[in-house]
Design goal:
With 218 residues, the chain is an all-alpha fold. The protein contains eight helices and no strands.
């Protein structure tokens, strides 16, 4: 079978897998941002009972392999009565993992906002929460865009790991085609090109967003 004929036949299945890859990446990014913001705030508040659990969580998620986390959530938790579908387990694990990295990006960005901004807000009568919400966070998001975009690009590649729990994303779709055609090299290269293309697209969106936020800040 010619390579182009092979890729033509594989395209519909790989495109479906690519859809699941994007679903996993974007869903996990949203979940990771929500939890990551909570963790970032918990890491900067002066209350140790809030700060230390958040710090331990971030250290744990960043210090253990994502593959092990997937196994714990999908294969380990059912032993204590907590069970998820493969799709839900994949999104949940990726969200939990991404939240640790995003929290550090957001925390660094929040701390990067000048102390004068806080002082000026307090002098206007704003509370800590109001200052964080209306003054600091909008500026921090602009600072954190590059690192958050890098996390999203990493998520796109990390979705390949959820194939181990039978989620038919791009990598598992590719493996299924290989099992029938016995042509691994061109199909793995094609999958790599799809991941690369998705990364390039999101990098372009990142640069466009940075320019837009930069103009808005001027």
């Amino acid at each position: 079978m010619e390579i182009w004929d092979l890729l033509h036949q594989a395209a519909p299945i790989m495109l479906r897998g690519t859809g699941y890859t994007l679903l996993f990446a974007l869903s996990s990014m949203v979940g990771g941002l929500i939890l990551g913001f909570i963790l970032a705030v918990a890491r900067i508040v002066p209350w140790k009972l809030v700060h230390w659990p958040a710090a331990v969580y971030v250290s744990l998620m960043r210090g253990t392999p994502l593959l092990v986390q997937i196994f714990v959530v999908y294969y380990g938790l059912p032993s204590v009565g907590i069970e998820f579908s493969p799709l839900m387990a994949g999104v949940l694990t990726l969200s939990l993992n991404a939240s640790a990295y995003l929290s550090e990006s957001l925390r660094g960005a929040i701390l990067g906002v000048g102390k004068g901004q806080w002082s000026a807000s307090y002098s206007l009568g704003l509370t800590y929460i109001q200052t964080l919400r209306h003054i600091v966070v909008p500026q921090a998001i602009r600072i954190a865009v590059p690192s958050m975009s890098n996390t999203l690009i990493s998520l796109i590649k990390d979705t390949s790991l959820v194939s181990v729990i039978t989620v038919t994303e791009l990598m598992l779709s590719t493996k299924e085609i290989i099992a029938v055609t016995f042509r691994p090299l061109p199909l793995y290269i094609a999958a790599a090109m799809v991941y690369w293309f998705l990364s390039i697209c999101f990098e372009a969106l990142q640069h466009r967003l940075e320019r837009r936020l930069g103009r808005a800040h001027q």
